[in-house]
Write a structure and sequence with these properties.
single chain; 231 residues; mainly beta; Jelly Rolls; 2 domains; six-stranded antiparallel β-sheet; five-stranded antiparallel β-sheet; 1 helix; 2% helix; binds fe (ii) ion
Amino acid sequence: MNEENRCRPLSFDGKYIRAQLVEDVRDHTAHGVVTNLSNEAMIIGGDVPGVIPPWKSTIMRGGKITRAERVSIVDVPDSVNLGGVMFDGWDWFGNRMEEFPRTTPLYISKHDVVGEVTLNPWRFSNHPEPLEETERYDIQLNLWWAPARTDAVIHNTHAFLEIHTQIYGLGRIQIFKDHAGTELYRELSTAPGDTHDPIVRVTGRRTYTYPWHRGWTDQDCIWMAIELHPK
Ligand SMILES: [Fe+2]
């Protein structure tokens, strides 16, 4: 049997952001944004127990996680100089992608592969006519940082399933008809503690189709990418 409450710092744990992974969680007190990184429901203790579904999240303020398979706990204990997070082992995203606009202030943390999972991507993405098909994925996390009113660039290709947990600040995911962004037709609000529903449309085996979308920050924002990479 595995040892309970196996804990380790995530690669983006640092001066401004405390981030840890906990596995086989039992009666574990938590402070911060807790994301359920598993196919099993996470149970919260209390007079009336709470349930966080798979791949969803909540804010814990000293409450107890009664039971969970695998969670990340990410907290910003003090936001003084939070904009300095980009000097804490992070990278300007333009250094990773040549075609990225040269003056857009989007920053990325180190990434961390926290485990693997087998799931049905059709069901994961709430497809109305799911096929019975499972796949093995690496679960990869990283953080993003951008100041208020950042256009984090419209894109529509990912070779993985992506969702995001908002850690700090209010923002949106905006969905457009085309690459130019002339017609915005949908927005998802992102608030601390929330993980949005997948926007991917699974169209075949390992075929993930995304609408034109971008991150948009209304305030200074930190959010966590959760990427499921097929193995
Ligand atoms: Fe994306």
